[in-house]
Amino acid sequence: MNDNLTPKAIVAALDAHIIGQRDAKRAVAVALRNRWRRQKLSPELRDEVTPKNILMIGPTGCGKTEISRRLAKLADAPFVKVEATKFTEVGYVGRDVEQIARDLVEEAIRLEKERRRLSVKDKAEAAAMDRLLDALTGKGSSQATREAFRQRFSDGHLDATEIEIEVEQAPTAAFEIPGAPQMINLSEMMKQFGGGQQLKRRKLPVRAAWDKLVEEEADKRLDQDDVTRTALADAEANGIVFLDEIDKIAVSDVRGGSVSREGVQRDLLPLIEGTTVATKYGPMKTDHILFIASGAFHVAKPSDLLPELQGRLPIRVELKGLTEADFIAILSDTKASLPAQYQALIATEGVEVSFTEDGIAAVARIAAEVNGQVENIGARRLQTVMEKLLEEVSFDAEDRSGESLVVDGAYVDKQLASIARNTDLSRFVL
Ligand SMILES: Nc1ncnc2c1ncn2[C@@H]1O[C@H](COP(=O)(O)OP(=O)(O)OP(=O)(O)O)[C@@H](O)[C@H]1O
């Protein structure tokens, strides 16, 4: 883990993307640093220190998921988001919550492969190119033909062409034999019994085929056992699970599905307290996973959760609903803000879009108004408003190359005011 990720540095990095929510940022920063601190302890003490899981309380669209996801990215940690209500749906049984741990391992494997692919990139690309040219020109084609196609591919002339390639079959689902220490993976088993890897012909656009072949060739060059070993350890020590809508499985809330909400809490408990889950890569201990639970808690209160679960979520942070002023800051002061994204996208067509201060203020005002009148969906409203605002130029950009568009207060009013004033209409459009 990166030594430089001190709580202050983490908060500063989060500040670049998320406006306000100081308490939540500080809490996740400390939780992450505690993991680094734990690694420095003696082995005996290290096992004793369990993560202090966090309960984020705040309305929808105020940054709960965003803070957690950014934190995971910063730490290069495996991250999964799960809706707690998913486990109240018909057809779910208690053991299904263990899937959370399995998903975390899959994510850790994806990350670990991504880290290692770089080291085998050159060789993998060379082998992938051979296979791609075989598919394009036929095996044994002349060097000159191959070179001509290689050049056309590099120049992007073949991107839209479809070709048929042989790729490895996606692994079949693993299943669990009761009492067995780990899941059984059918395709692995067949490989071991001499069945070899199953190949399948697939028709793909050349660009997608290229990506698939490079991935396959890179994977061949990675030590899969070592990847899974490292990934499993990474998921155990650094995994972060974001459990959304935890308030909806609290008991006083009358909504919910067929499986009792208290039952779901009981199923989740061992996972959060620390248990061993069978995965197809071997047993995984959940003791040191960091859980960030979140909910609006409009109806239920944290005290409506099972006492054991409350105890396992000792750090409580409240996130505030976002105001019009926050919206202005989100639009103007965050890294890769929405206006900057639209600007860059439309610039690719040769149209220069710029936003004035009063243009931004008008977008923020309309977003706040619609949130107040229709439904408060927090900063998500900025996305729908911006999309509508720039719909016209996004569609026409190809014919307007060389033009520039100034998005000021007047332009925003012209595009949006009539919609925003009509609550029925904005319910559908914004
Ligand atoms: N404080 C904030 N600063 C900047 N952007 C924000 C902020 N809050 C939310 N956003 C943006 O709004 C969108 C939704 O936010 P997020 O997913 O974090 O919501 P949430 O609080 O987790 O809500 P829910 O409980 O419904 O999942 C994201 O695209 C995020 O970038």
UniProtKB/TrEMBL annotation:
What GO terms fall under cellular component here? Answer: HslUV protease complex
* Keywords noted in UniProt: ATP-binding, Chaperone, Hydrolase, Nucleotide-binding, Protease
For this protein, the record's SMART domains field holds:
AAA (SM00382), ClpB_D2-small (SM01086)
User: Where does the AAA+ ATPase domain lie?
Assistant: 50-319
**InterPro entries documented for this protein:** AAA+_ATPase, ATP-dep_Clp_protease_ClpX, ATPase_AAA_core, Clp_ATPase_C, HslU, P-loop_NTPase
The record, for Pfam families, names: AAA (PF00004), AAA_2 (PF07724)
One record GO biological process: proteolysis involved in protein catabolic process
Give one GO term, molecular function aspect.
Answer: peptidase activity
Q: Where is the Clp ATPase C-terminal domain?
A: 322-418
Source species, domain of life: Bacteria
Q: Family, per the entry?
A: Belongs to the ClpX chaperone family. HslU subfamily.
Write the protein's name: ATP-dependent HslUV protease ATP-binding subunit HslU
Organism source for this protein? Sphingomonas aerophila
Identify the taxonomic lineage of the organism of origin: Bacteria, Pseudomonadati, Pseudomonadota, Alphaproteobacteria, Sphingomonadales
